[in-house]
Amino acid sequence: MNFPVVRYDMSPPRAQREDRILLYGAWIGPVKEHPDYCVSLKWNPHGIEPNWMYHQVFRILERDEAERIVRGLAEREFADGKGTASGRARDIKHNLQATSDERELPDLEKSVIAALERQQEFQAFALPKRFARPIFNRYEPGMHYGSHIDNSLLGGFNGLRSDLSMTLFLNSPAEYDGGELVIESYTGAEAFKLDAGEAIVYSAGSIHHVAPVTRGTRLAAITWMQSAVRLDNLREILYDLFHAVKLAEEGKCGFALSLSRSYHNLIRYAAEL
Ligand SMILES: [Fe+2]
């Protein structure tokens, strides 16, 4: 049997989720099935390989927390982003990055990691084991970052394997034109330009680019993470199961305990620590 790739959009508030699903790269709706029981159904009438591209939008910071970081960044120096690029990326990377002489993680960077560590939905999605040091970047008019993939090993073999990348938008999208993070896939491109404090978390192996900024300033924090579960498709199954457990527990279903046992035992089976 063939199954199309259907993915529920989990980014809008829960009440609106049932109205939109992603089908072959396009959001369609309304969809009247229960919005929560399946995050992702797969049904492929055209015989196209399922798209395992794994990404999700999360609110990581409240707007006032994002504003506090933006105020803090006004005190920091910014240098050419090519300084941390290697190979071909040096030719296509046109942005600025906040510098720091401190060996210890500065407070602003620390606050990004702390916010990621307390966001439960993000934790269930990414199952993060280690984070790379966050980088704050700034795009002024004319700046952009061409199509690339992120390095697989950060800091060499003793560093971390980048399974997932994150872009956390820090200022309002009304403050600039352009600047979308665009993730490219076999089914088309998806552009993300999010509210201050929202982040897109996506497979580090995805081809992606930052569209040119044509007005104003775009400020964002980026980081990478090694997940305890390396494979996107296995992590996706666990993420689906996480929601099924949550619903079963909320509904006080009789099978909640056995579902929860399966979820945790699967993590025990799959996690590398
Ligand atoms: Fe990138």
Quick take:
The chain has helices at residues 63-73, 89-92, 107-118, 120-126, 232-250, 256-270, and strands at residues 3-8, 21-23, 26-28, 40-43, 55-59, 78-80, 93-94, 96-98, 128-131, 135-139, 144-148, 153-154, 160-161, 164-169, 176-178, 181-185, 188-192, 198-203, 207-210, 213-216, 218-227. It is α+β, with helices and mostly antiparallel strands and 273 residues long.
Question: What does this protein look like?
Answer:
This protein folds into 3 domains: 3-51, no CATH class; 56-227, Jelly Rolls; 232-270, no CATH class. It has 6 helices and 21 strands. The chain has helices spanning 63-73, 89-92, 107-118, 120-126, 232-250, 256-270, and strands at 3-8, 21-23, 26-28, 40-43, 55-59, 78-80, 93-94, 96-98, 128-131, 135-139, 144-148, 153-154, 160-161, 164-169, 176-178, 181-185, 188-192, 198-203, 207-210, 213-216, 218-227. Mean pLDDT is 83; it is low at 1-10 and 12-52. Helix 5 (232-250) packs antiparallel against helix 6 (256-270). The protein is α+β, with helices and mostly antiparallel strands and 273 residues long. Helix content is 25%, strand content 33%. The longest helix is centred in the C-terminal third of the chain and has 19 residues, at 232-250. The structure holds fe (ii) ion. Fe (ii) ion binds at residues 148, 150, 165, 208.
